[in-house]
Amino acid sequence: MVNCAAFESYEISPRFRRTVEERVARLERDAAQDEANVMQLDDEDHIRRQMRLVAAQRAEALRMRIFLDRAKTRPPAAAMAR
After folding, report:
1. pTM
2. Which listed residue, of 4, 19, 51, 63, carries a Cα 20 to 30 Å from 70's Cα?
3. Neighbours of 54 (CB within 10 A)
4. Are the beta carbons of 60 and 27 closer than 8 angstroms?
């Protein structure tokens, strides 16, 4: 069985694309900072939870990047009016 959703394409506005790109950048930056902070932790359980947070941030960033890769950016309204 073929997953049709994998081939689905979306059209998004340039503004929405920028918003998602900014969110991806923030998630990746936060993940790197949170991973660097692990060195300051002593408790094994705290370290485990911190690394789960990092993994979740990176997974969400990847999910959003895949969405952006599949999405087409709609031309700005001014370009469409011509």
Report:
1. 0.79
2. 51
3. 19
4. yes
